[in-house]
Amino acid sequence: MALGWYATVFAAVFVGSAGVPANPNRDCSVIFACLTPQEGLALAAIVGAPVLTAMLLTTLAITVPLARRVPSPILAGTLSVSITVGLAVVAGGFWQAAR
């Protein structure tokens, strides 16, 4: 069930970014400034693959004990994804503070 949440978010980002028209007055002197939405999404997928893998493994580790205590599989998947996203936000905050 948790994998469904990740797929839903990925699909929503893709649909949202594909529907945004390009700015005609773009400055292409900056690196990655002139990528199409699809190219930007592909780059984000390549860079974000390790993060997504870590989040999926964390979700799996959280789901196993949580599924035994929560009666609904949908609720267990949603709670495990919510906890994982919270942990990812905290880890990102620590990473930003260390830079």
- Describe the global form: elongated
Average pLDDT metric:
83
Low-confidence stretches: none
Question: SSE order, as H and E?
Answer: HHH
Gyration radius (Cα, Å) is 17 Å
How many alpha or pi helices?
A: 3
Which descriptors apply to this entry?
99 residues, mainly alpha, 77% helix, Major intrinsic protein
What does it look like?
By secondary structure, the protein is mainly alpha-helical. It contains three helices and no strands. It has a domain of 50 residues. Helices cover 77% and strands 0% of the residues. The radius of gyration is 17 Å and the shape is elongated. The N and C termini lie far apart (35 Å). Keywords: Membrane, Transmembrane, Transmembrane helix.
Brief digest:
This protein is mainly α and 99 residues long.
Walk me through the topology.
Blueprint: H1 2-18, H2 37-69, H3 73-98
Helix pairs in contact: 1-2, 1-3, 2-3
